[in-house]
Amino acid sequence: MKVKHLYILFLLITISCNSSDIDKNVQENETEAFYLLDIDADVISGEYALAPSKANYDTALVYGIEGSIFVFYPRKVIEKRKDSVVLYQIGDTVMLPNSLIIPIKPNQKATKGDVVLTWWQSGTGMQRAIVLNNDTSATPTVYYLDNQYSFYSSVTDINFWIDTLKPNSFILLKDEIMSGRSILVKKDYFSVFYTIINATNDKLLALSWAGLLEVFEKDDFTIIPLRQNFNVGDSVLVPYFGTFSKGIVKAVWPDIGKITAEILFIDENIDIYANMIDSYITHKND
Fold it and tell me: Is 256 in a helix, a strand, or coil?
């Protein structure tokens, strides 16, 4: 047999083996995905939910659920099944496990100061937002909180992040363990910031600042209070690039749910913006 033919045969065998390994990984990772949380997705056909894209999920099946980056987008619910939900995305459908679905129940309303879980409706991607309008509304005007205004966004015009939400497109956050709430998780010498995706009675699935999913037991985290009375001079923990730093409150912006805090970063004191719902008061400046 000629060398060329041997080389082609070698490539075919290699591709076949790699394909077999990928198929095995996909099967194992899909099983992992469906059992991240034993949860029922309380969705309604025709209503919105927040979920990863099909491409996002397919990539995670190859490389591992807890090692892949996830971004959550708005999707319309087509059908609820026992362990999964079928969703519509532009030009396609996707079936995802219940643990990766955040249902949005219809007919919710919000008023000034409330925080909601939604998506950037002039753009895309999951966002928390604070309500600006004084009246109780099914279509509130909001300021998006997860806009990275604090330190690396090139857009610093506050009006850019103000939007009016569609009806039936948001979840009102409450003082309980639920999707959209912020938590602090201690890891070695660090305190790490996560956002809850879904929760059961004994554990929860949370998303890191970098977009990584992880499951935690109820004793592994501290939930950040939804409403705190921040004042200048308070000692706080604020998230910066995914981990919490000690800081001192320098300014408070209650209408847009932000504080300015001075933290030590490497060897320099810097001022950063932080969300009130992500920050934790450790000592009051009474």
Answer: helix
Instruction: Determine the pLDDT at residue 182.
Output: 98
Residue 41: left if φ>0, alpha if ψ -120 to 50, beta else—which one?
beta
Q: How far apart are CA 252 and CA 276, in angstroms?
A: 9
> Confidence class of residue 16 from pLDDT cuts 50, 70 and 90?
very low
Q: Scanning the structure block, which residue is given the tokens 């099946």?
A: 61
CA separation for the pair 228, 284 (Å, rounded)? 11
What is the 8-class DSSP label of residue 276? G
DSSP structure string for 195-211: EEEEE-SSEEEEEETTS
Confidence (pTM): 0.88
C-alpha pair distances (Å), 89 with each of 4, 75, 211: 45, 6, 20
| pLDDT tens digits, 97-140 | 999 999 999 999 999 999 999 999 988 899 999 999 999 999 99
Measured CA to CA, the distance from residue 147 to residue 139 in angstroms comes to 20
Question: Measuring CA to CA, which residue among 282, 278, 280 is closest to residue 148?
Answer: 278
Tell me, what's the pLDDT at 258? 92
